[in-house]
Specification:
Blueprint lengths: L3 E2 L9 H10 L18 H18 L5 E6 L2 H13 L4 E6 L2 H10 L4 E7 L22 E5 L1 E2 L4 E2 L9 E5 L16 E5 L10 E6 L16 H6 L9 H17 L1 H21 L17 E4 L4 H13 L2 E2 L10 E4 L6 H18 L1
Parallel strand pairs: 1-12, 3-4, 3-5, 5-8, 8-9
Antiparallel strand pairs: 2-10, 6-7, 9-10, 11-13
The structure holds pyridoxal-5'-phosphate.
Amino acid sequence: MRVYNFAAGPSTLPVSVLEQAQKELLDYQGTGMSIVEMSHRGKPFMAVNAEANQLLRELMNIPDDYSVLFVQGGASQQFAAVPLNLLKNGKADYILTGNFAQKAYEEGLKYGDMAVAGSSKEDKYTYIPDMKSISFRDGIDYVHTTYNNTIYGTRYTELPKTDATLVTDMSSCILSEEVDVKKFGLIYAGAQKNIAPAGLTIVIVRKDLLGNASPICPTMLNYAIQDKNDSLYNTPPCFPIYMSLLVFRWLKNLGGVKAIQQINEQKAAMLYDFIDNSSFYKNKVAKKDRSIMNVPFVSPSEELDAKFVAEATKAGLVSLKGHRVTGGMRASIYNAMPIEGVKALIDFMKKFEMENK
Ligand SMILES: *Cc1c(COP(=O)(O)O)cnc(C)c1O
């Protein structure tokens, strides 16, 4: 039986996509083999790769002067790839809004003169710093941001005020809401949260930023080389790319990002409204900065949190335990989480509150 899976990543995928993958696994379109058993340079896979790339462009309205790269190594690899490719003056500023932002900054320090321009660390990352109060150094090559903070449940609703290249990590929110790609020089995202199984990382980079990689940049991390080779410099992560294509088609059929954003906002509003109207559960994030993808919350005690997670699991609502650094609970309600899943969670929360008040 399928459960409602609130995992932060890898995470739930659309059932229809899983069914299609299952159906095609023994014989992909009459080839007599699965998509993961054939050459990545053969016609069937090349077509998958090209259509996935094209559909992502369409879904996100990515202008022609941007490259879309399908690479490996996860978002964490991009913490190094970004400075290795983008530094020209050798310095960049970072805004720290969570653990992943901190990690990106620490990795960056290996390659350049990096500075923290703003941070909400002192307040346990419960908000996004006010963009008006953040200023940047002169001559920086980029400003690094983390658009949605998976662990703390915050997201940007306003961008840094700077003429420098904006870089953002959208691992946990890519395709969840409309974004204007043109505002960014580079967007990267691990696919395993809102798109596909783990193994694929998406990089969307403005083409004028290509070609300045540091001499020590590993070939595999060099965006210009990946771009020149249509992300087929070496064997790509075939299965996650194929699954991405199925998810992109699913999303397009649904009406695209605009349509899913409405659904996502509806799901998030239902859950936050319920939490805000309860005296039992609490979400500690500043309201204006709340994520529509990751919703952390706590009950009145750690004991009850543990009991909540255990009983929810029994009720078919799984992976609700919060990240180890925050404790409590977290419901990740990515694109593939149906509204029914959020309703079932709220019903369970009501019942648990009544039994434990
Ligand atoms: C999960 C996550 C990462 C780490 O992704 P990997 O693909 O596991 O390296 C980085 N940034 C954000 C915002 C994330 O949610």
